[in-house]
Amino acid sequence: MNSFKAPRGTRDILPEEVGIWQHIEEVAGKVFASYRYQEIRTPIFEVTELFARGIGETSDIVNKEMYTFADRKGRNLTLRPENTASVVRAVIEHGMLTKLPLRLYYAGPMFRYERPQAGRSRQFHQLGTEAIGSFAPGLDAEVITMVVHLLQDIGLSGLEVQINSVGCPECRGQYRQSLVDYFGQFKEDLCNDCQVRLERNPLRILDCKTAVCSGLKENAPPISDSLCQDCSSHLGEVTRHLKLFGIDYTRNPKLVRGLDYYTRTAFEVVDYGLGAQNAVAAGGRYDNLIEEMGGRPTPAIGFAAGCERLVLCLKERRSPATTTSVPDLLLAAVGLSSEEYPVKFLQELRRAGLSVLFDWEKRGLKAQLKLANRIGVKQALILGQDELDRQVATLKDMETGKQEEIDLVEIINKLTG
RNA sequence: GUGAGCGUAGCUCAGUUGGUUAGAGCGCUGGACUGUGGCUCCGGAGGUCGCGGGUUCGAAUCCCGUCGUUCACCCCA
After folding, report:
1. Distance (Å) of CA A154 to CA A83, A204, A250
2. Secondary structure letter of residue A297 according to DSSP
3. What is the pLDDT of residues A172-223, one digit of tens each?
């Protein structure tokens, strides 16, 4: 048992499944284009410091989930755990902030060193967008609308959109304090993790799923009470626009984001049929990130969807958009003294755009038909010596079993016409 | 990083209180049918029972370790 396996947390996407992935990517490309987003492709790895600064030094992602390595000259590099930091870096690096507004989308693999479980792997795929250069709340609603649009077109429905505001640095500080005040009263009752969170990141207590903490957070002050005037009216405008767009949503005052760069609007799309990792797509505003990364102050909003989770959803609803490609034709050469005709026809048929199956093993007709039948080829063109002697070939319909003889000179026209 | 469940053929799984040569279905392959697929019948290949150690006369089965996997915690898309 010395054979190789894909590394832990990675997996192969086999041909039977790849159709679903292509479907998702194709739909995403169309939907993004209709909202005028353009694709950007950034490197799979970046200087480690980029993520440390972009995502946040204190986040779990940066602290314990990154694939970080030194290259042969000792540069400290990291496989991207998400793509927003890279996109922001590219935008600043190429002076694109002078050409606002920008609308960019990406799709590709991300890497996080986590314990694998349903909907979570070490190499996973995200597709997402970044809209850079506007504070307008209508844009937030448009982004959420686009996400719903995308998920619908992919073939998903019955998902729930949750929305909240995580405020700006000022009012979030206040909210943090009011949470500390509130949970501080019950410090002894909180679970061990949350006692630590009370010091380090009290907002995360709202995410806790233990029975005690869930009970306590029922009466925790909602962030809406702490939002400043601007953040509060921003959220109101976002929801007003969502109604204009006709998007159903749920206000979830306890929704918080894991990455430090988020401000104001935060949203998530969840599928309750999915297990513990049920967020299919999520995103929000990050109005301060670009400045923090060294660009001129510029607001932005984006989202990302987890492709593996989308695939799980689609399978869950057993609506597999699997389009396994089937060859149009089997070209079966049988007992020929020369390969002149089969090779000639192979080339002509393929040049004419047909997908043609050909058996170089020169097995018997039976074996060839069996193979063609198994993979669902619709027609077989049988070239045998006695046919060639009469300048004809036999065309067999694999579904009906009917056969007819065709003149060799007619074949290409007949099959491609 | 923590916890629990599971590792037997390519796949899905049987395998009795530990007992001698480890099985089935599907799939693959050959034949019946010398140049005609699907259906049927008959045959064949394919396993160091995840790996390592221990207990035992004897281990797929019991024990320990390890790796893998699944789910959950954590975190997050």
Report:
1. 22, 32, 22
2. P
3. 888 888 888 888 887 777 777 777 777 777 777 777 766 677 677 777 888 8
Q: CB A357: neighbour CB atoms within 10 A?
A: 18
Distance CA A36, CA A29 (A): 10
* Rg of chain A (C-alpha set): 28
Which residue, among A260, A270, A272, A263, has the nearest Cα to A306 in the 3D structure? Answer: A270
Residues A407, A391 contacting (CB under 8 angstroms): yes
- Nucleotide nearest to A310 in CA–C1' terms: B77
Distances (CA, A) of A193 to A60, A201, A219, A410: 14, 11, 19, 77
B37 C1' to A22 CA distance, Å: 31
ipTM for the assembly: 0.86
Residues A38-62, mean pLDDT to the nearest whole number:
92
Q: pLDDT at position A324, please?
A: 66
SS3 A332: strand
CA distance A267 to A302: 10
A104 CA vs B43 C1’ separation (Å): 62
Q: Which amino acid is at A134?
A: S
Task: Identify the structural domains of chain A with CATH numbers, from first to last.
Answer: 15-168+228-320 (3.30.930.10), 329-416 (3.40.50.800)
Q: Is A267 helix (H, G, I), strand (E, B) or coil?
A: strand
> Which of A336, A331, A325 has its CA nearest to residue A415?
A331
Q: Strands A300-306 and A279-285, how do they pair? A: antiparallel
> At which residue do the structure tokens 């306590």 appear?
A216
How far does the CA of A3 sit from the C1' of B62, in Å?
29
